[in-house]
Amino acid sequence: MKRKISIEALAREQIKAAQRAGGRRAAETVFGGHEKVLRQTVMGLLKDAEIGERENLDEATIYVLEGRVQLWVGDDCWEARQGSLLVLPQARHRLVAIMDSALLITVAKLSTSPEEPPTSS
Predict the structure, then answer these.
(1) InterPro entries annotated for this entry (predicted)?
(2) Which of 13, 19, 54, 102 has most Cβ atoms within 10 angstroms of its Cβ?
């Protein structure tokens, strides 16, 4: 496991990967995963790419490493640019890239999905 990661270099790599990807986005988990409570992912999104509407049941933030994005919750919108931290609401939301962007998404799992049985201690 890597102990030191250049998030800036990974952000550039993910924007380049998004340019090659059909979905106009690319991501790499840099810490954690489905089996962990904490998960951090760097995502590259090209201009006008979107992370479609979804429910958030966990604690999550998005740090804008590069570019500019909009976070939509219903009719409310917050715009964030490089250096901004968005705290995701525990509500349905979507994210749209206003320009090519790189994000550090951090999620702390508070719940299990309906498909997953709760773990016992």
Answers:
(1) RmlC-like_jellyroll, RmlC_Cupin_sf
(2) 102
